[in-house]
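Action item from last week, closing it out:
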Amino acid sequence: MTAAARTIRAIPEDLRRMQVEASDPAVSAWVTANAGSGKTHVLAQRVIRLLLDGVDPAKILCITFTKAAAANMANRVFDELRRWTALDDGELDAAIKRISDIQPDAARRTLARRLFAMALETPGGLKVQTIHAFCTRAHSAARSRPRSRPPPTRPSRTWSAKRSANATQCAPGSTMAAASTRPSPRSAGRSVWAPTTPSSASTAR
């Protein structure tokens, strides 16, 4: 690799301020720019700022279109966090201020130096996935999840002769009895009930 290829381009101050605003986790941002202009850099800084705010790495999900983009973003996050572990206090403060408006203190420095290990130890790793991988994982999780309640059963349409033979008390001096033990074509699949007097109910029986 030549010296020119290793040269790090300086980001203009006005552009850096725009990137800081877009990477703020407290705001919703829509970033559009040409290829190679720093979109992945902004997304990586947003993830790092979430971690600096104390968000559990397991609760962060980044979705991209391609595996190459997902690997690129994950590498940028891990490279920056690994670099922070070796910085002294002054250099670490400058690195934090460069990507945010945070004024670092001793507690923030301690957290910043632990972020690399926390991200590595996260079960399943830092979640930077393609859309396809995310959908596949969600589908598998939904299929393996136990049912919280049994599925509803379809009510039976079987005609019951017992039901028609039982008279139901509905008012003094009268009963509800089945009009017939066999359904008519118009009432097939359901019981037909009609009010009768006690004498007619006994006749039906």
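Closing note: The domain at 12-138 is CATH 3.40.50.300 (Rossmann fold).
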